[in-house]
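We append the chain.
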Amino acid sequence: MRQFLHPLSKQGLFSLVAAALLGAPGQSLAQTVSGPPVVAHEQMVVAANPHAVEAGITILRAGGSSVDAAIAVQLVLSMVEPQSSGIGGGAFLLHYDRSDNGAADPTLTAYGGRETAPSAATQNLFMDADGRGLPFPQIAWGGMAVGVPGVMRMLELAHVDHGRLPWSELFEPAIELAERGFEITPRLFFLLDRFEDLARGRSFKAHYFDEQGQAREVGTLLINKPYANTLRLLATQGADAMYTGPLAEEIVATVTGNALAQGLISREDLRNYQPEKSAPLCSPYRQWTVCGPQLPSSGGLAVQQILGIASAFELDPDDMAGSIHILAEASRLAFADRDLYLADPKYVSVPVDALLNPGYLRERASLIRRDRSIDSIVPGQPAQLAAWDYAPSPPSELASTSHFSIVDQWGDAVSMTTSVQSTFGSQLMVGGFLLNNQLTDFVVEPMRNGRLIANRPEGGKRPLSSMSPSFVIDSDERLRLIVGSPGGTRIIGYVVQAIVGLLDFGYNVQEAVAAPHFLARFDTLEIEERSDLVDMTAALQALGNDVQARTLNSGLHAIEIQYGTDGQPTLYGGVDPRREGIAIGD
């Protein structure tokens, strides 16, 4: 195997990648005055790119369902926001069905399209011959970290269950855009420009960079005929076209034969991929119910753990420093559990019920003091858990993802978070789209202090994720909020903060997604730089917090639903000002 070496140090490389991920231009909080929410009464799409939103609303106006619109949105995002998500990656989707199924109560379904490791992978996938973990550049770019893509099989399954328009019709907006092209946006240019020194994939460079190796400028018309051809194939043959046949053969050849780092995906791995379908993970928060994805997304459990712990306290917007402190402590406690216990439940018997047990959450909440930080955060030991033989491991998930929220005219809804992992995924392009590098969400070294780590690579295993598409349901079983975000492991905190902003602080949905961020995953309490929270630094430090001001570039896209006295809903769209998204509704 040819090893890809980069002249930057590992620390310098991570800094450059982080800058590309988190420092995107111009739509910083300090420069944006958030306006009122977008209002609609029948249907709405909120996503990170105007082309994707327009595709989604076109499908809704043609009589499509929320799932139909979600497919159209994803197909366009794959092209216009390639740094974040695409058909070569994976996703988690929640569906709320309140329409005409004849049931007394709405039906909630969780769909999982998380990538799987190749069947030939072992726990030493990212180890060298001397038993040391390989550096990030050798892992991330090329085929080594490419997991079997899951998003198209997942969307096809959801369409079988909830689609209203023919599958092929959903591809038309993306095919048209790929043929006529779209203009490179400031955000896409910024990320390409920052990524210039890291760009190695041959097809990737040819498509997004000019002959001199410079990122194509803002406003450049980017046409993608290979992607249009791929979409036509998928439109006529279904998702099978990606998992069998010539396109599948090209994926295997590219992953196993590229010049950066060879991977292990086989034709059998593609052919055997199956999406997951289940009830979502739901738990109470005050008078509401919060629902999220099942494992291997840690987002559902971690979001609900944080909220469950925080529910022992009043969260008051008039005492913002005190409320931030409570949520930060609850987050640290939840992340300690996340890093020890959570992994693909088909490979590890994760104690999900025990970790969300109300008694256990009260026990964890009892550790929090309003006047000082907990001296040492350690994982909890639920009473129902006899023993646990795994070692904890800090997460390494990077922040390149996208989220969109959709409500259709029947009141059905989708919350979907989708990703190719780090910026521009593996840099390997097949059929006009990028392949993921999601296997970097596994730990590199499978053991610590002689004990195995739950989230280690194994053949067929799905790596742990932080994607957190979420619903909030009111006491009458009505959908109250659809929300999610990109941001790597920060996704969990972003989603918690948006939910708390709406439910506890009384913000409208636009205020909730635009509010300055605060996050605590480890020892540091991160606050959003150039925001009003910086003025609270001294108060937060007085409580024992190690406070750092940082760029916290979320991409929250949410829909709040309010009901009139006649029971009729009004939709309110919240668009994160840190990205390029919009909301459109009717």
Observations:
- DSSP finds 19 helices and 23 strands in the chain.
- Residues 90 and 151 are 5 Å apart (CA to CA).
- The chain has a mean pLDDT of 92.
- The longest strand covers residues 90-97.
